[in-house]
Specification:
It comes from Micromonospora coerulea. By secondary structure, the protein is mostly helical. It has one domain. α2 packs antiparallel against α3 and α4 runs antiparallel to α5. It has a two-stranded antiparallel ribbon with strand order 1-2. It is flat.
Length: 136
């Protein structure tokens, strides 16, 4: 006997629109973080040597956090419908976790360019999962 899975309307409402809005928040947040340090104003919260949070950085970080969290919730809620094999899910989770860990560690380490390695690995996982999430 076969079962037919029906997608809930609450999950399938408008995934493309929601993904587009969350990606837009991410892009705007990254663009705000690209403002040169000389134009940001004074550092409000020092994090480590060479790193600190200004008001402009706070706005960019808030947009990144809200857009990233929204996108993560969309991906996780739609994960059962993506029909990815377990090894692919494990690999994508490992890649995203490694990327996020390197991004966070780059703030506290002496090697500045670890953020680029972390952003690349996290970006690869996002480039696979986000189009799959938005397609239905």
């Amino acid at each position: 006997m076969t079962k037919t899975l029906v997608m809930s309307q609450s999950i399938g409402g408008a995934p493309r629109t929601q993904v587009a809005v969350s990606v837009l928040l991410l892009v705007v947040g990254v663009l705000i973080l690209f403002v040169p340090a000389g134009d940001e104003g004074r550092v409000l919260v020092p994090v480590s040597e060479g790193h600190g949070l200004s008001a402009v950085d706070g706005v960019g970080a808030a947009l990144l956090a809200s857009g990233g969290t929204w996108l993560e919730v969309l991906v996780v809620r739609r994960l059962p419908y993506l029909a990815l094999p377990p090894r692919a899910l494990f690999g994508l989770g490992l890649l995203a976790g490694l990327g996020m860990g390197l991004l966070i560690a780059s703030v506290f380490s002496g090697f500045f360019w670890w953020w680029a390695v972390g952003a690349t690995t996290l970006g690869l996982a996002v480039l696979v999962l986000v189009p799959l999430t938005a397609r239905r």
